[in-house]
Amino acid sequence: MTDITLQRLEKRYGETTAVEDVSVEIDDGELLCLLGPSGSGKSTTLRMLAGLETPTEGAIRLDGEDVTDQPAYDRNTSTVFQDWALFPHKTVLENVAFGLKMRDVSKDERRERAQAMLERVQMGGYGDEDPTTLSGGQKQRVALARSLAVNPDVLLLDEPLSNLDKRLREDMQIELREIHDDLEETFVHVTHDQDEAFTLADRIGIMNEGELIQVGDPDEVYENPKNRFIEAFLGDTNFVDATVVQSPGETVAVETELGAELVLPSSSDHGLKADDELTLSLRPEILSIDRGAPGADTTSPADQRAVTDGSTTNAVTGTIANVIYRGSTVRYSVSIDGASVFAERTNASSGSLSAGDDVTLEWNSEDVLAFRADGVRVPLYNP
Question: Which stretches make up the ABC transporter domain (predicted)?
């Protein structure tokens, strides 16, 4: 196993900066996913780690050894590419054994190790096959076996599942996780797929515009996103514009585009003051949706005022504009004072709500995330 240190890594191509000031430490045996949209710098970072690109600035250390200027062939790393890069003129077994041949491993040993890796990725009976006849999933398994056969200190995976269909991609995610747990080697996996990162990763590093914005356990980056970009990128949510009305300390009152004044809890020094602009994130999983008006102890739904219960619950009323059946879930788009908010129910609990129904959306105020105008998260409370 090998630990990795990236220290203030940068890569520039002329006037274009692809990676800027990336620093992270990756532990022995860890599976780190670099997650971000296209063009975020994640693949360039991986290529520098592999030795396929030379950093413009910064340092790369493997087990404490500075390998910044070492070529790829001098590093005991192996890369699985998005396009598999199999040799069409070699058999499946010869493809898997190729890296061992380049390392002067004897013919008998490389055949034995290559066959063992094919067995590990459930391709044991395909050694004599022409790789051009394989399916996409089978090609990916062969590419993975080839990279693992050389027993690398670090396995690098550059969006290796992106060419697979949804079901096969999900199956391969689980297999990759099992292989990592069995081998206990250090993996660095690049993906733009949020579900893939959450399925695979010990930790997730989120990149955007060449910068590594946040690194943490999957639950940490999801529950406590550092800024609005991360909140938007990690999943569907409702962003609601708001303005601070008052912030006495224990609660923060805000006016919103929903035509309602809402109350948010506060137990930290957030520095908010009246007239500050905020964006609230109301994730669909925190919203309950029910037909009709709120309970009798609330204010009138007609005036769209805040509904609070001990300053921990907010609710607004609206009308269902449309209903979208999504298989296991049903999504409801609700019109509220000219704005639109969506909520979801599981299909089993969807009931008989229909377009045109008047409904109440209700949520715990502690579940709301708030972001300043510059996108930085506001620490309204200490979870």
Answer: 4-234
Cβ count within 10 A of residue 38: 8
Q: Give residue 366's pLDDT.
A: 86
Strand order from edge to edge, sheet including 313-325: 288-291, 358-364, 313-325, 329-336, 339-346
Query: CA-CA-CA-CA torsion for 341, 347, 349, 350, nearest 10 degrees?
Result: 50
pTM of the model: 0.89
Which residues of the chain fall short of a pLDDT of 70?
A: 1, 247-249, 268, 294-312, 348-351, 382-383
Distance CA 342, CA 323 (A): 10
Give 299's Cβ-side CA count (13 Å radius).
Answer: 16
pLDDT, residue 382, reads 57
DSSP-assigned letter for residue 305: -
Rounded-to-10 torsion of CA 124, 127, 133, 139: 60
**Mean pLDDT of all residues in the chain?**
89
What is the model's pLDDT at position 2? 82
Which candidate, 23, 28, 45, 24, places its Cα nearest to that of 36? 45
Dihedral of the alpha carbons of 117, 121, 145, 32, in degrees to the nearest 10 = -120
Euclidean distance between CA atoms 368 and 383, whole angstroms: 12
Q: Which domains does the chain have, with CATH numbers?
A: 4-232 (3.40.50.300), 236-372 (2.40.50.100)
d(CA 223, CA 367): 9
Find, among 183, 220, 82, 88, the residue nearest to 140 by Cα.
82
Looking at the chain, which runs of residues are DSSP E strands? 4-13, 16-26, 31-35, 57-62, 65-66, 77-80, 154-158, 186-191, 203-208, 211-216, 238-246, 251-256, 261-265, 277-282, 288-291, 313-325, 329-336, 339-346, 358-364, 369-372
